[in-house]
Structure formats: C-alpha cells, structure tokens
Specification:
Shape: elongated
Order of helices and strands: EEEEEEEEEEEEEEEEEEHEEE
Helix content: under 10%
Oligomer: single chain
Strand content: over 45%
Structural class: mainly beta
Distance between the termini: 34 Å
Number of strands: 21
Number of helices: 1
Largest sheet: 10 strands, antiparallel
Radius of gyration: 23 Å
C-alpha cells in the first residue's frame, strides 16, 4: 500500500489515520470516454469518445455512428444499447486471435443484428515472451534508424532476428525479470556504418544477463548492468 501525501503540522500527527491509501496493484478503471475495441474476420473497430459510438465493420465498408447512451451495468461489465448498435463490455481478459496481444476486456458488438466478438480496453503485458515478436524502436536514448527493418523473436528458448543488418540467433532463458543469453551467432554482411553501429550495440546487450521491464505503453525494455538498454515494441 502506498500512502498519499499528507502534509500536516506536527501537532496534528494524530490525524494521519485519516489519510487515504491506494493499492498499487489495483487495476485502472476503464474510461469509456476514450475507449477502443476491435475484432477480426471480418475486421472491425469501435471508438467511444463519451459522446458517440463510432463503429466501422467489414474492413471499413460498414459504418455506424450514433450518440453514446448512458452505460448500463451488466454482469461484470457495462452495456450500451442503441437502435442500430449494442456494445457489451465484459471485464475479462481477451486475446486477439490474429496478433496474440492481450487486452483487459472481452467485447461483443451487435451491429444491426450481426454479432461480432473482439477485445477492448487497455493492453495487457504478455504472459510470456515465448511466441512473441518485437521491433527495436530505441537504442539507449536514440530512436532506431529504421524500426521496420528490425525484428526480435522469442520462441522455444531461442532468440532470433535482425537489428537492422545481419541475422542473428541464440539461446535464452527467462526467470522473472531476468533474461540470460547464451552465445549469439550472426551473419557477417557489411551494411552502412550507422546501421552497423546500431547492430553492434544491440548484440552487445545479448551477452550474459539483462533485466527486463515494460513501459506504461507496453514496450519491452531490456538493460544490462552498464546502463545500456534497448526499447522494443510488440509486433505480434
């Protein structure tokens, strides 16, 4: 539990018990004024801004935009009902069946009589690195030269990919917030100097042990004991 700041005179210390506390593990409340949900096959997306429900379905060919009604509490969620569009949000984690990314809510859309399932709310951290892929967006404090040309994959105890020039592969193990890498091997193609410098820095990170953490945006940050680090954005 983390106490809120309570500035009190010394003579009023007896009132400290009145200070409120908040749990650091308490999940954030969904904000329907900036809510996005999406689903696949056919692709659809719903945006809620507190004033309207803006739905685009069938890969954008179907569009419904109506006033956002007041939400009705439902079993473990909220429901928004209009003549053309009904939105059922259930506070239960959901995995996107194409990207594999996890979200805080399961969402059911009924658009003009057609039911569609998808995910919404805040993005959750991956339960495991296994089966995930990332692009490098930062090296130390500098943006990656071309994030789209980078790829880092974790699968079955192996890490592989490219830092913008050569392909690399090696073994890794994962224990809590620590990643330990075995020997990393890579191809030896020459590239422009700046790309080579970026690659050299990244491969230097993959030596021995690094710590991992996630940013508030869900980016993966790995760092070694020397303070070198890389920031990676989830691709799948």
């Amino acid at each position: 539990m983390r106490p809120y700041n309570c500035t009190l005179p010394i003579l009023s210390l007896m009132l400290l018990s009145a200070c409120q506390t908040v749990s650091e593990t308490e999940p954030p409340v969904n904000d329907a004024a900036s809510y996005i949900a999406r689903g696949n096959e056919p692709g659809w997306i719903l945006k809620m801004d507190g004033k309207t429900l803006d739905y685009q379905g069938d890969y954008g060919s179907t569009k419904i935009k109506v006033a956002q009604p007041e939400g009705r509490p439902s079993f473990n969620g909220m429901r928004y009902v209009t003549d053309r569009l009904t939105v059922d949000i259930t506070y239960a984690s959901c995995a996107d069946d194409m990207s594999g990314e996890r979200y805080s809510d399961s969402v059911l859309i009924t658009a003009e009589g057609k039911d569609l399932k998808g995910c919404g709310g805040r993005k959750l951290l991956p339960e495991s690195l296994d089966g995930t892929a990332w692009t490098i967006i930062m090296m130390d404090q500098m943006p990656a030269l071309d994030a789209q040309k980078t790829e880092v994959r974790f699968a079955d105890g192996k890490i592989s990919g490219t830092a913008g020039c050569n392909r690399f592969t090696g073994n890794y193990s994962h224990n809590s917030n620590v990643l330990t890498f075995g020997a990393i091997v890579s191809t030896r193609m020459m590239c422009p100097e700046k790309q080579m410098a970026q690659e050299t820095k990244f491969l230097a990170l993959l030596k021995g042990t690094v710590t991992k953490r996630y940013s508030i945006e869900g980016n993966l940050i790995i760092a070694n004991e020397n303070g070198q680090r890389a920031t990676l954005k989830r691709a799948i």
